[in-house]
Amino acid sequence: MTKKKMYLIHHSHTDIGYTDSQERIGRHYVDFMKQLLEFFDQIDTGKKEWDGYHYTCENYWQVEEFYRNSTKEEQKRFEQRVKEGKIEVSLTYLNMNELVDDTIQRKKFAQAKKYVDDLGVHGDSAMIADINGATWGYAEAMFESGINNFYSCLHTHHGMFPLFKKQIPFWWETKKGNKLLVWNGDHYQTANPFFITPNSDFTKQFPNGYGQAEADAQFAETEKQIFSYFDHLAKEDYPYDFIPNMISGVLTDNSAPSPRMMEVIHRWNETHGEKIELELTTLQGFFDKLRGSGIEFPTYRGDWPDWWADGSDSTPAFIKIYRAAQRKYHLTRKLDPTGELGKEEWLEGTEQQMMMFAEHSWGHAASISHPWDTEVNEADYKNSAYAVNAHTLITKNMMEILSHYGEVSPTLYRNKQFKVINPHNETVADYGKVNIDHWEEVNGSYYNYYQHGGFVEVVDVVTGEVIPSQMAPTIRGYSVAFPLTLAAKEERIVVLRTKEDALVIENSNLAIRATDNVLDIGDYPGYENRASVHKIITDFLAIYFDDNGISSMIDRKTNVELIHSSSMYRPFEGVYEVTPMTKDPGTSRRLLGRNRKGRAAKRYVAQLTDLQIVNDGPIYTVAELTYELEGTRLYQVSLKVYKDSPRMTVAVKILKQYEWAPENLYIPLPFSYGKEYTLFAEKSGGVFRPTIDQLPGTNTDYYLLNNGMTFVGKEHALVVTTKDAPLIWLGDLKHHEIELCQETSASKNRELVYSWPMNNFWETNFKADISGAYEFEYDILLVHNNTDEEDLIKQAERTNQGIINIPI
């Protein structure tokens, strides 16, 4: 028998707010670091049974917390142990959800790398634990930050490892062709059930204490478990004579470190070391040995979708706030690239809050079983506060920057001048939008007296040109929208003024508008009705309605039907699912496995009850579709179809009721562009083809996107932004056997797409309650003679971020 070796990597898995409150978890890791310092001092002064002890900080956040709450002397002692290789720092910041912003993530990678570099330590390794994947862009960010080795010890609870097999190495090739060495590992506490730490068998009771007899009995169990483990590896033809496994001080998340595992490791090696040797090492130590092993590693390219990304949609209101903060963050960087106009502490505070919100834990372990518990609710509100705090800080920073651009606060009798700014590095054709509160006047006149919408006009201050505009009511007054094309970084000043002919009543002798003001006359020679409850026609789009909602959407430039030929549901009409609970709330959810619904899930489709044209002017037409949908008190869709551009903005308003059983709500996006199209989507850090540009064996059911996706035909494309609700579902909604990514799954790239804004099917971490009032916004853009997916996604980004409008 060839001698075998098991490398053990000792760490504590970080779950912020899962086992205790967020601030207490931070304090725990400060104390864990101080415990480590004491352990190593004891080893140096004679605790030889602990010789060989090492500890890996699972992430750099643990180190940051220690530095915030330790003395200079403690920090020097810590740095010395890092230099000695006794303590190692993984260069990931935390175990992140796919919401994490690429720009901020790179800054955190750089901070961790600088820390080890400044200490003169060889460190280029990082790990993730628990989470079930990382975006393709995350791999690029790691490599470009100096991280060359990546260890994944994911948790297959509602998930699965890639490549159809774990405990194997591979090169993960980035989109740019760079390569990370990845160990596709097992669970982050695989070695704990081997009972390597004394008195760690939770099934045993010792009324008279844990003595030598009990230690011998546990060691016998250790022998049984480890030999059985290696026998099983042999049966599966495991190819290597070594294997790594993660271990915590005790079998729990956020575990305190324990050097006592060395006592059993030494005993094992003295007893069985000639057959199987145990070695406690560090992450870097393992990768150094792996790279020197002479093994040829296979190479794979593509995205690594996180099976757990969907849990974030259990807090849809705060996801929306977080996404708004992300957009403002990037706008401030475009408006203030050198950081001279804003305040650094607000920007850095935003970055920290955004990272904390995107940390994977999300909520308390008992979030489903005890949703009323005070500790559960405290953890939930504190996690949500990260999104709110990020939004608050970045808004303050944005206002500070815009004050340098000339923004003024409300002023009585102010001449209604506005500055419109294109913050982007590209020419943008968009819509300026300025608001007038109910108490404000224009040239001495108030809006409320002229609700027909012909009160004001928009004028370019420099050229004197009157820009077409349209007015709509808001919750505080009115908004005025007007089209502009702005060069990169261009600023334009406009002014609102009253129309000279504001009170002139236009009468037409044509058979168009009757005294009831209902536009329901069909086309006849010399007249075309372009906006009714049956259709909306522009030069770019033709949208037709029937008794169930939108029946057809046609690109008028190419005459291509944009609704997928296999569509089961109408665009935006709403689909609700609920799985009856046959057991307790937690068990019912656990048994769902990788399906996000039960085999007996009940599915309901929204039923149209009303359709009205609520606004029609020179810039756009707004149709309002009202539905009845199970699980909601209100389901309403507002379609704003622009007349002078190939664009439609959709707002879906939902009043969701409370339901404790596992539930999902989907918004169908059943689009395509011709039969021979390809779906491209953007995650944080890059664009990819779902079900194609992925690691083998990964999830193909759903994806958490950043700015949106594009359906790319042979010459033209359709772009859909995911502004507020980042999660999409791809394929059939029915319960099914899970299709992992492989060659045959490429055809799934052209299956039906759904926005998936809310669910509550997880039995831990994530919220049980998704009730509330929500509005989710989407933009649909037609792009002609352009099939460059990177450019198309940049258009989605610019559409989501918009242009800036400020009073001056």
TrEMBL record:
Domain Glycoside hydrolase family 38 N-terminal: 5-300
GO biological process: mannose metabolic process
A GO MF term: alpha-mannosidase activity
Name of the protein described by the UniProt record: Glycoside hydrolase family 38 N-terminal domain-containing protein
Taxonomic placement: Bacteria, Bacillati, Bacillota, Bacilli, Lactobacillales
